[in-house]
Specification:
The protein has 18 helices and 13 strands. The strands form three sheets. It has an eight-stranded parallel beta sheet. The chain is α/β, with parallel strands linked by helices and 508 residues long. Bound molecules: flavin mononucleotide (FMN).
């Protein structure tokens, strides 16, 4: 009994000390006015996301990804039954609801395989229009988007890379350089941002010799110049010295423990002509296809780029269009919420510029921004994307629970943190199969959707097949809404024959 009294006295003493502290401190008015109980507000606020996620919100309410969306990714990743029974829960007649117009006579594939692993190569050869020595046909139209080692843990990067190898898709390194965890068997797209990590001079400029060395050091299939990303366009970045561990320093080519700054723009080019020159320089050193990634803001840039490419016959082999709805490890809220066009409008801007220049069939377009679901991916492709990049959906496949703590280093599942206690829970071998299963399931559904629309490949689904409800009794197709002409992307018999050839011959 005596120990109960002691415990009670200790607790009471602690509460008295806390109350005195609350009363004299000046930082928080709520604690000064309501000592002790005021802490409840902070406690509830800190677990608010979890409360809403598990208890309060409906299956299709949460953002950025609803519970239904996350459940689909988890189920496909674990190869559980991803089907939903009894019919849809959605309100099909709500404005902006997407409907896919299927064909009366679906496409019957030559070798129907509804359940096996799904090959789904790109309908375009990357780098073909510029005759790059390293031109190739990507084996998968679904690939893993840029997320650097530093924003993600070593275990997460390894899981994604091994997963890419299993799924035979590509893994974009992100702008943090190529680390040892990126070299676990998956093919890479090496992303180069304004920090030039992996090809950087000591003062932060571009080092061509180091670039060549890094290209030769791993299974790098293409180079992506990052101009901007949808969640923080027009912003640079800063990696605090405390986070620059020996491994991160090695991948980035910077000194251990020193803060590194990525400026908000490249030093190697300053206008369309010099951008094209730099693309060509990287391509001639590496022999690889070279592309750019950008969020879409200023419209004139895209018109000038397309016109410049058409006039000179030079320039990027691919363009990754990142929607403003895209994710990030950390960004100011106003940039994530209000800067850059969402994917649909962004892609329309870029694609139309390239149509006007007659280059839309030459350049490969990649889309990203919450496109890792079959209907979203199909919508993206109907607007011109040839391939889809998935970032946060791939994170979810390896265990992300959308805690939205990427910027705090406290990611509870070890995906977006460098905290070794938290990362030890993430087993790269186990999670690699999960991300591979998810990628395969997305490809499978995309294929089935294309077949339902009467064509052999999703890139042949026209924007006239995707409709959005304007009002409950009026649907508008993407083609009409954005003024797409059927001739830009027609389902012509030659295109169908070419794609059937890709499937049957198994050629990459
Ligand atoms: C944790 C994290 C880190 C990211 N790092 C990069 C990066 O290094 N370079 C880049 O271009 N985009 C980066 N992104 C953006 C993604 O590559 C992608 O463009 C964006 O999240 C949209 O795809 P999603 O909706 O499938 O996530 C990052 C996103 C996340 C969530």
């Amino acid at each position: 009994m005596w120990w109960l009294l002691i415990a009670g006295a200790v607790i009471l003493g602690a509460l008295v000390i806390l109350a005195i502290y609350d009363l004299v401190q000046k930082r928080h008015a709520i604690l000064r006015n309501f000592p002790i109980v005021g802490h409840l507000r902070y406690a509830l606020e800190s677990i608010g996301p979890e409360l809403r996620q598990y208890i309060v919100t409906d299956n299709d309410e949460e953002r950025p990804f609803t519970r239904d969306e996350r459940r689909w990714v988890y189920a496909t990743a674990k190869q559980q039954n991803p089907y939903f029974g009894f019919g849809t829960n959605n309100h099909l007649e709500e404005p902006d609801y997407m409907v896919i117009r299927h064909a009366a006579f679906p496409y019957q594939p030559p070798k129907a395989d509804e359940h096996g692993a799904h090959r789904l190569p790109s309908s375009k050869v990357l780098g073909e229009w510029r005759n790059r020595p390293g031109a190739f046909r990507p084996e998968s139209i679904v690939n893993i988007s840029a997320m650097s080692f530093g924003s993600l843990s070593a275990q997460a990067i390894e899981a994604l890379n091994r997963g890419a190898s299993i799924a035979r898709c590509m893994h974009n390194t992100g702008e943090g350089g190529v680390s040892s965890y990126h070299r676990k068997g998956g093919d890479l797209i090496w992303q180069i941002g304004t920090g030039y990590f992996g090809c950087r001079t000591p003062d932060g400029g571009f080092d061509a010799a180091q670039f060549e060395e890094t290209v030769g050091s791993g299974p790098i299939k293409a180079i992506e110049i990052k101009m901007s990303q949808g969640a923080k366009p027009g912003l640079g970045g800063l990696l605090p010295g405390a986070k620059v561990t020996a491994e991160i320093a090695e991948a980035r080519g910077v000194p251990v423990g020193e803060t590194v700054v990525s400026p908000n723009r490249h030093q190697t080019f300053s206008d369309v002509a010099s951008l094209i020159d730099w693309v060509e320089e990287l391509a001639s050193i590496s022999g690889l296809p070279v592309g750019i990634k950008s969020a879409i803001g200023e419209e004139d840039f895209w018109r000038e780029l397309a016109e410049g490419m058409a006039a000179t016959g030079r320039g990027p082999d691919f363009i990754t269009v990142d929607g403003g709805e895209g994710g990030t490890g950390a960004a100011p809220m106003v940039f994530s919420d209000h800067v850059a066009l969402p994917y649909r409008l962004g892609m329309v801007t870029v694609y139309k510029s390239f149509v006007a220049a007659g280059l839309q069939e030459k350049v490969t377009f990649i889309g990203s921004g919450k496109l890792g679901f079959p209907q979203q991916a199909l919508m993206a492709m109907s607007l011109g994307a040839d391939m889809i990049n998935v970032a946060r959906e791939a994170m979810i496949a390896i265990g992300c629970i959308q805690a939205q703590k990427c910027h705090t280093d406290h990611c509870p599942v070890g995906v977006a943190t460098q905290n070794s206690w938290l990362t030890r829970g993430l087993d790269p071998a186990n999670k690699s199969t999960r991300v591979a299963n998810y990628v395969d399931a997305l490809r499978a559904d995309l294929l089935r959707l294309a077949w339902a629309c009467g064509v052999p490949h999703p890139s042949l689904v026209p924007p006239s097949a995707i409709e959005f409800l304007a009002t409950p009794d009026n649907a508008v197709s993407l083609a009409n809404r954005f003024g797409y002409d059927a001739s830009w992307k027609s389902v012509d018999p030659d295109a169908v024959a070419k794609l059937e050839g890709i499937f049957e011959s198994g050629k990459g």
